[in-house]
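Lab notes, practical 5.
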Amino acid sequence: MTLKHDGIGQALTNSLRLASEETFEREKAEEAGRASYRRTYWQGYAKKVKRIFGTVTPCEYDAIKRSADDADRSVWGQIWAEAQAYRAERTLATGEIAEQQRALVSELRRIGNNLNQLARLGHIRNRKHGDLGQDANDLGDEAMKQLALLEEVVTRFDDGMTIRAVAER
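Output from the prediction step:
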């Protein structure tokens, strides 16, 4: 009697092929290679990265937690930032100053974008019309307004020092 495979029977027969001894040995060797790689990787990882543990009192933890919340950081992020500031012999920005810095950077990006658009517009007009003529004065005036705004934003950041940009003549 001959078995005729059709549809599902054919699919099951194809999928249930038994692996040969040779295939089994090859897969076993590949897994051993992967295991060796993982072992070597993690042994090297332990040399590159070190864990630091410490103990603080509840009062110290609360102080760190408050300063971390003010600066919008995690507790570990706050400890790391304080350690880096200490190492660099700098003061660490408080939460209010950090927020002012973020606002300042955002404003500087917007002003820089405006200046880039003005420069691009000037180049486009120069290519189309050759000499810019009166348009150059308009673009120059707008650029000076943007630079004045930039100076205003930079000097608004109050950390005890006044910064003034002086144009060279």
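Observations recorded by the TA: Residues 36-92 form one domain. The longest helix spans residues 95-129.
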